[in-house]
Design a protein that fits this description.
94 residues, mainly alpha, 5 helices, 62% helix, 0% strand, extended
């Protein structure tokens, strides 16, 4: 059985929406297909770090310097969990 795609509401500035509409028309794709294609491309060009905010590496360094090795392992493990497992873990901790 094929898994259903995840539905997501996205708010875009009008200018960004226009650029997406133009690109979708140029490549003969739907707006959704254009967004998915561009997201896939951004992740395939290297690590997702390419899209990180400018100060992200500095903030990561500052925050990680205050964590011991076990805390860092927990954070890395959490970041790799799928959303429903993250929610279950957070429920468990409450």
């Amino acid at each position: 059985m094929k898994e259903k795609p995840y539905k997501f509401v996205l708010r875009l500035p009008p200018e960004m929406r226009e650029k997406i509409v133009e690109a979708a028309g140029r490549y003969r794709r739907s707006i959704n297909s254009e967004i998915v294609a561009r997201l896939e491309q951004s992740f395939s060009e290297g690590s997702p770090a390419n899209a990180a905010p400018p100060l992200h590496p500095h903030l990561e360094h500052v925050l990680r310097s205050r964590l011991d090795a076990d805390e860092q392992r927990l954070i890395n493990g959490y970041r790799h969990l799928e959303q429903r497992k993250r929610a279950a873990l957070l429920d468990f901790l409450d």
